[in-house]
Every structure is written in structure tokens, then in C-alpha cells.
Amino acid sequence: MSIDVMEHKANVVKTIDNCSTEEMLSLIQDAEQPIVFKGLCANWPLVKAGLESSDSAMKYLAQFYQGMPVTAYYLAPEHQGRVFYNDTLDGFNYQAGKLDLRQIFTQLTAPQAASIYMGSTDINQCLPGLGDDNSFNLAPLSPLTNIWLGNQTRIAAHFDFPHNLACNVVGRRTFTLFPPEQISNLYIGPMEFAPGGQDISLVNIDNPDFNRFPKFAKAMEAAQVAELEPGDVLFIPSMWWHHVRGMDDFNVLITHWWRDTPGYLGRPNNALLHAMLSLRSLPKAQRQAWKALFDHYIFDHEDGDLEHIPSAAQGMLTTPLDEINARKLRADLTNKLKR
């Protein structure tokens, strides 16, 4: 296993060559930075089919398709593949609909300049059996495995709560990644209304308007870029913002998402929404007081902080929170939110 850190290019994601799957799993276990694993899935049949031709890759995928309609986006040529809002941010710049996957393939091979994009789609529901030879065995992590495909499209910078092992199987993709702390420099759009349902940066990364978005220059200083060839795998840590560009006429990505905590603990964005409801409108002095409470109980807590409380009396302060106390807490919250 050889490591090419490329320290002289701070904007390039660390790259590891000649790595086994076992070594990869060990390296990402505690990783807090993105990592590219060159050629780690190069032996997958779909990768090999894609290297032959786009048509070979589509034929390979079609043999697993059972007819389930999938959601696809159509973008007119003037949008140059950028999946985004309309000009007034009260709608989107694409048309979305349910299509047969073979219809998508037909449109992708048509002589047109329009952009076609199929986003996150469960591989086991859409293409049962494809994952047998075209995904990693991450059983201990219980990942959600999805497939993404399209032509030359651009997906605005967004974040995901789960960790992501993104396998670039057909075509080339470029990821531009930003650390979580760069959120204030990314100019995030509306929370409850966004393409794909996930908050996105409003900055056009290919042609940023620094007059409108001056702090984005700082975000770019902190950005890391990964240019992926077929067979390359990118580890994206939880909460890292990432802009994704499909470089070729046909691109396919297979992702594995997983979280570090059990599902019964819920999604952290629910806590953020509740904070929007109950904290955001408070006077600044009160917000700062609540910030101190959050820092104490949530963000800065350490092992040993609760030694002054008997274990049996710690209740919801127990770390990690067990399922019984989690359910009690959820029930209590549900009752209070009904008032």
C-alpha cells in the first residue's frame, strides 16, 4: 500500500494506491478527512463494461432491471447540467418524473444537449442482484447502497449526515469537498425547499459571483478536490459538503451510506429543526445562555463528567444512550410537541 498525500497541493484529496478492502475499512474507521482509494473497485463487472463503452454499461445494468419506475430529472440545455433552483427560488430549473430506466437510457443516447439525472436510488430495489458483484461487503456497518446515473450534470454543494463510500464505476466525476465548518462561507439556500430535499449552496462553483458571495473565496481556500476515474472510490466523512460534477456523456456512481450511531437515536437534523422553533427567535443573551447548556450537555461533554451522579440516576444523560431511555425521551418529546 502506497500513499500519495500530495502535501504540496493542499486542495487535492489524499490519495491511496494499491489498497485492499480490509485496509480501506481500517483507514476510514476513524478518518475525519476525505480519502480517495485509487482503483479499489476497478475489478467490478460494471466498471469493466463501462470501460468498453457506455452502451455496454447500459446493457449490463439493464439485465438487472425489473421494471420499477425511477425518479429522473430533465434539464434544458441552457442550464448546462446544473441541477438548481429557478431564478426566483420558488421552484426548480428541471422537470422531474417517474420513468422506466430503459427510457432514461434511450434519452441519454439521443443526440441532444439536454441533461438527464437519476439521483439516489436504492440499488437493491431498482436493480436487484447488481450489488452482488458491484458493491462492497460492509455488513457490520449496515449501509444503504444507492445508484446514481446521468450525463454531464452538476450537483450543488450539499452535506449528508451518514458517512459515504462513493464508488465511481462509469465515466469520470469531480468532487469538490468543503469541511463542515465552512458552512458560513457557502451561502446555503432555503432549508425546507431544496433540490433533492437537501440544503444546498447557492454559489455556482464554476463561475462564482464574489460580489454577491464574497466569503466563498475562503471556502475555496479550504476546499479539497477529488478527480475520480472509473474504479476509484471516495470516502466522504459525515457532514462534509460536496459538489459533484459528472464529466462524461454517461456516468454511474454507487454509494454506501452508514451512520456511527443506531437508528433509534433519530436524525440530528430533527434536533436542529426543533432548535429553529424554540431557540432561534430568542434574544441574543438567552441564545448564548442556551449555547452554554448545549456545549455542556452535548458538544463538549467528556467521559467522567457525570461521576457526581449515580449511574442508575443518569437517565437521559447516559452515554451512549440506550434504546429504552431513547424511547422514553422520544415519547416525552412527542407529548410536549403536541401542546
Automatic annotation (TrEMBL):
SUPFAM superfamilies given in the database record: Clavaminate synthase-like
Positions of the JmjC domain: 99-274
Coiled coil (UniProt feature): none
Top-rank taxon: Bacteria
PROSITE patterns: JMJC
UniProt cross-references to InterPro entries, sorted A to Z: Cupin_8, JmjC_dom
Protein name: Transcription factor jumonji, jmjC domain protein
Species of the source: Shewanella baltica (strain OS155 / ATCC BAA-1091)
